[in-house]
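Chapter summary example.
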Amino acid sequence: MKLIITGASGFVATELIRQSLSNPEITSIIALARRPVSAPSNLSPGADASKLHSVVLNNYDAYPDDVKTQLKGADACIWTVAITPNKARGMDFAQIRRVCHDQTLIGLEEMLLASSQERTNSSNPQPFRFLYMSGAKGERDQSKTPGLETKYLLMRGETENQILALATGKYRDQMTACVAKPGIITQSGQYLKTALAVVLWYVIGLPRVDVKECAAAMLHEVVQGFSKEPLLNEDLVRIGRRELGSGR
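The structure predicted for these 248 residues follows.
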């Protein structure tokens, strides 16, 4: 599998890359980011860092020809680019929407166009798999008014809806899509963030998942095919623990 990971310099994407380099079913990783990306330092024994190809994209609104060339023949993408609620505070909402919504849809269509011809010419063509990492509180029902960060959560839900609509409508023969909805993503040793996650669970019911579990679950789903949609936080924990326990 040739896998695209967007936002490749980020927290979750770095763990996705680390695990992908040890996954024999993933033969090529296109690490798409605004700056060069190197292989993580804590690779597992047997990891193949030569599978990693760093591709710099200055603006997720526009894909120059050299970037499109790198995307050709890709089988799947895990999209992690977003502005989190914490970072969104004080930002212009138009800019937040541009990054979280507009650029996601632009990127999806560019990837489909770039990869479709080579996959069509394949002896066993498979639909492009697109896994969008959203958030546990993203609201798909646009008639609702979430109590906190209302505009933001409705916008994330709207993005989910439009991705899924493309997969069942305009591009139904070319792609399948799934949304991962993690809560707060923690990492072993991050004691302050773990403590915050406990507080958020009690205050607003926001669940948490370890970054290794989250990455393992998303990689399993994008490689093997989506087992359900959406992938809720509890699904990410369950699948991630199972995959990590199997030594993958």
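To summarize the output: Residues 93-120 form the longest helix (28 residues).
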